[in-house]
Design brief:
224 residues, 21% strand, binds S-adenosylmethionine, 38% helix, eight-stranded mixed sheet, Rossmann fold, alpha/beta
């Protein structure tokens, strides 16, 4: 994408009522007014709150919001020019129960209060295979601790990935640390049993992996 196009999207994001772009200092200095207030102030209801971390263009968040009008969805990504797509679609199609937050996932517990979140989706994260990149892997122990902070005690995490490495790494870590694996499937379109929302919606990256005939895997778990 050209830089002109990106700038246009950044400018448009600023005008969208469903896009939130707190600065790092607003978040870390506890000045972000929606922390703990997402339901009441953003969605104006008391419905469950679901996050999609690393939402990219936001297709999953938008499609889930359409499928579950009685839940609220927030797509989180550091790249505003990507989620501009989902935010614009939500505005054009009048989908009130989805919003987008531009931030680093590392700051997630500064954007959401303890126990504010019911469910998390992590869709096609970069597996960060190299050892020195482990700290950026979105299911490492430090990230799981952050997710645990914002999730309700009964909250669940869903991981969908094309990466055998990411799938195996996450399962190993969950079992080793005594977290609760509720369901795991190493090829969701071939092996029956996945929840409907796993196979009925595809993200942008997922569509590309499916064209290459890559198996898509899925894990649903609770962090203890
Ligand atoms: C491989 S893409 C997947 C996008 C989308 N979920 C999909 O399946 O099409 C990973 C996304 O995660 C975002 N991301 C990676 N690390 C992040 C971080 N630490 N904080 C916020 N976003 C991050 C990237 O900007 C990118 O949009």
């Amino acid at each position: 994408m050209g830089s002109k196009n990106k700038l246009k999207r950044f400018r448009e994001n600023e005008t969208f009522s469903n896009v939130f772009q707190p600065t790092r200092s607003e978040l870390v200095d506890s000045k972000f007014k929606y922390r703990g207030q997402w339901r009441k102030e953003v969605f104006k209801n008391v419905n469950p709150l679901v996050l999609e971390l690393g939402c990219g263009k936001g297709e999953y968040s938008v499609a889930l919001a359409q499928k579950y009008p009685n839940k609220n969805f927030v797509g989180v990504d550091i790249k505003g020019a990507r989620f501009w797509r989902g935010a614009k679609t939500a505005i054009e199609e009048h989908i009130p129960n989805v919003a987008f937050l531009r931030t680093q996932i590392e700051l997630i517990d500064h954007a959401f209060a303890e126990g504010e979140v019911d469910e998390i989706w992590i869709t096609f994260p970069d597996p960060q295979i190299k050892y020195k990149r482990t700290k950026h892997r979105m299911t490492n122990a430090v990230f799981l601790e952050r997710y645990k902070k914002v999730l309700k005690p009964e909250g669940v995490v869903n991981l969908k990935t094309d990466s055998e490495f990411m799938h195996g790494y996450t399962l190993g870590l969950l079992h080793g640390a005594g977290h609760e694996v509720l369901y795991a499937n190493h090829n969701v379109y071939k092996q029956e049993g996945s929840p409907e929302e796993v196979t009925s919606i595809q993200t942008y990256y997922e569509s590309q992996y499916l064209e290459q005939n890559k198996p898509i895997t899925y894990i649903r778990f609770k962090i203890k």
